[in-house]
């Protein structure tokens, strides 16, 4: 007699990344947004100590966040790994030690707002410098992608190869120099003490009083940028490939999320209030739009993945300062809606939000180029 067909729940075992998170005994946060990374519940972390949680946002496994908390007067166990990682500090003070096997350790002290590149497969260990308060930070990584590529946790965490072309103690100033402004909207650095006050370049193609800086960090093909929207304005709706994680690091506002075909249908747009440290991760081709509803600038940190064809120093011939701010071809990989093509209700609702918050400044959203 033939056996009944198995249900999806019976045969589905999840990806190698999902199984790894399960083995860690950690929560896996999913969806299109998280309201506050600093308030998420984390689990005790036997492998390294402290507490940990993971994300799988936008139904993708290319980019993920590892959320980590260290108790007062404590530290994590050392580790090295075959995936890229960039650390952002949500709260607290501490230090990270970086080293290659057989070389001296280098110590980088940090506090809230710091951004630090972890070199590929170099050893690193984090310490909480406070005797009374926990510290919390995230690692933006391509861990999920690497786990699913190799299917081997031992290879990912125990590979002895040292990428000394990426990092070696002999590289003077690797974490101490001020970095290099390589091109319009492109900055090379490995450590920024506080990205909340880091200088950005104007991005007029995206909107009035909007600025950005793309970051090349850790000798890697990282796709990271800092975006700032001025008071009393908002940026054009735009879409691109899946994966980018956009985290608010200063100010307050909201995000609109909607799929193609819903440009003129308010009932199909999702409105997400955001403040530090909320994160939005649009799905494939999903439009997203940043609105500043507070006093002062609205600043965000975006992790867009690790792509060798992107904003890296070795591919400067392919570098496009305009980036995703394109409007001439709606079938392009990245596309934006011009302000004069958007639903008028979007602007009306935005001005109502400003009035409610007592914001008198109104900057007319005018397209200034780039399509």
Describe how the helices and strands are arranged.
Blueprint: H1 8-11, H2 16-24, E1 28-31, E2 33-34, E3 43-44, E4 51-57, E5 64-70, E6 85-91, E7 93-99, E8 106-111, E9 115-118, E10 123-128, E11 135-141, H3 143-150, H4 153-158, E12 180-183, E13 186-188, E14 191-192, E15 201-202, E16 210-216, E17 222-229, E18 238-239, E19 245-250, E20 253-258, E21 270-274, E22 279-280, E23 287-292, E24 298-306, E25 335-336, H5 344-356
Explain this structure to me?
The chain is mainly beta and 371 residues long. Helix content is 11%, strand content 33%. It has helices spanning 8-11, 16-24, 143-150, 153-158, 344-356; strands spanning 28-31, 33-34, 43-44, 51-57, 64-70, 85-91, 93-99, 106-111, 115-118, 123-128, 135-141, 180-183, 186-188, 191-192, 201-202, 210-216, 222-229, 238-239, 245-250, 253-258, 270-274, 279-280, 287-292, 298-306, 335-336. Helix 2 (16-24) crosses helix 3. The longest helix is centred in the C-terminal third of the chain and has 13 residues, at 344-356.
Q: What is the compact description of this entry?
A:
The protein is mostly beta strands. The chain is 11% helix and 33% strand.
Question: What labels would you give this structure?
Answer:
Jelly Rolls; 25 strands; eight-stranded mixed beta sheet; mainly beta; nine-stranded mixed beta sheet
